[in-house]
Design goal:
61% helix; Double Stranded RNA Binding Domain; 193 residues; Ribonuclease iii, N-terminal Endonuclease Domain, Chain A; single chain; three-stranded antiparallel β-sheet; 2 domains; mainly alpha
């Protein structure tokens, strides 16, 4: 790794996002460890994943007014969704650098408790891809996702195949998001519970 010592170079918030992401994971992990003292590692991991998800970070960015401070020329709804989450992570990273871990931990947990019904939020099952995989295994079928980048920057298209038959397609700002969207469509089309 090289260090950039050039004067006047503008930096993006990606380094702060990286730091904020790590701090969020640690704080949320600690919170869930104490909030659910009898749950196993699998449940805690799934819960942490939901609380640090793009959709939840966007929710917190909106609730705190951070979204209103963002300026962007991006028109893609999903890209804006990611920008809000990225900005929230960068803010957490910046506050951590300025005020330290205990300060961020206390404020973040207070923020989550204020703007998120943790019990209800964690009981929402929106992992559509896992539901499709469970259905595939139960029915002894073969699932395949084919992905490709579209002509629009940071947009991916995914096609979902079951037993070599195209079921549906979807787009997203990441392959993972497109797969989730395609899985949700497949659940509706195939009437999977």
């Amino acid at each position: 790794m090289t260090q950039n010592k050039s004067a006047g170079v503008r930096h993006s918030n990606e380094r702060l996002e990286f730091l904020g992401d790590a701090v969020l994971d640690a704080i949320i992990g600690d919170f869930l460890y104490h909030y659910y003292p009898d749950e196993d590692e699998g449940i805690l991991t799934k819960a942490r994943s939901k609380l640090v998800s793009r959709s939840h970070l966007k929710h917190l960015a909106k609730a705190t007014g951070l979204v209103q401070l963002l300026k962007s020329d991006v028109k893609n709804e999903e890209a804006v969704h990611n920008l809000a989450g990225n900005a929230f992570e960068a803010l957490i990273g910046a506050i951590y650098l300025r005020k330290g871990y205990p300060f961020v931990q206390k404020r973040l947990i207070r923020l989550i408790k204020r703007f998120t019904d943790v019990e209800a939020f964690l009981n929402i099952d929106d992992d559509y891809k896992s539901k499709v995989y469970q259905w595939i295994q139960k029915n002894k079928k073969v699932l395949l996702f084919k992905s490709k980048e579209t002509k629009r920057k940071q947009e991916f298209e995914v096609e979902l195949y079951i037993d070599d038959e195209l079921v549906c397609g979807a787009k997203g700002s990441t392959i993972k998001a497109a797969e989730q969207s395609a899985s949700e469509k497949a659940i509706n089309l195939l009437k999977i519970n």
